[in-house]
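User: What would this chain look like folded?
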Amino acid sequence: MKQLHFIGMADGLRPLFILQGCVFNPYIQQYNMCYITEKSEGIVVEFCKKNNIEVVVVEANNMENEIEKVKDMNPLMLIAIGWSTRIPPKFLSVFKYAINCHGGLLPDYRGHNAYMHSYANIEQEYGPTIHFMNEKFDDGNIILQAKAKLFLEETPLIIHRRMSEMTAQILPQAIQLVLSGYQGEKQNGYARYFYKIDRAEMESIRQKNIENIRKGIKKEITRHKSWEIE
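Assistant: Here's the prediction, encoded as structure tokens.
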């Protein structure tokens, strides 16, 4: 039976929410599931053990030397659902397909924890992107996206959870598309990479933007760089 290898942090809420939404999906249940993570204990590891998902622990900063742990496991697809470091090409090459579940609407909102920036910037909408992985961050062809309206009443945790649940809803279809030969759509247009911010900076910009909206003036945008994709 072919394997779907998910990769994410042992204590991450995002991978937990995504796996919770996928594990009982009839399409996903056609495959054996394996969870690659960085340590042997954590809330996601416990969930996997309770749901008969095999767990493989790898050294996050030395992944090229961990290839043998998955090479003989009939690997078909690697699905990143909340991994904190760059996955080296040599490790990706073990799998026939490698896709990433990103928490932003690419090509916009690249970078880690995009939900924090969506919240601070009070965007009109937000959502996840499932895309092919390559040697660059958040750069591969887009397979599927989902969108939701951002309400002022939403907290960062609610946005984070809704983003994860939307990911779980579209992931089975994305996997099916990839396995049927779909190569995705090249990213194009205006791109922004958002730099890491802490919660204090997030809340500060959020409050400024609430006042800016009330005054009818331009919002402040969290720290980022932008460019046009050719």
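The chain has a mean pLDDT of 94. If you want, I can go into more detail on any region.
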